[in-house]
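User: Can you predict the 3D structure for this chain?
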Amino acid sequence: MYKGNALTTSVTTANTSGVLLAGNSQRIRAEFINRDAAITVYIKAGGTAATTDHIPLAPGAQYVDDYGTSDWFVIAASGTPKVCVTQILAR
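Assistant: Here is the predicted structure, written as structure tokens:
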């Protein structure tokens, strides 16, 4: 169990790379869940995301980052799927 303040938001993605979660030096955990039923999104820490590589999040998939504090970027394969973002910040 993490001791900290949890902040959750929903981010609408697009077929161009955009910021999914801004960097935060107080972050101790970040969780990303692709809420779309059919569209894959791709995420990347620290730089522009692309559909040709990076971390794919299939529909309903989750990714957890327990180490980084940098920006996270996202791009959708198509459409405008939503990604649920939760970050836990140190108290």
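DSSP finds no helices and eight strands in the chain. The two ends are 14 Å apart (CA to CA).
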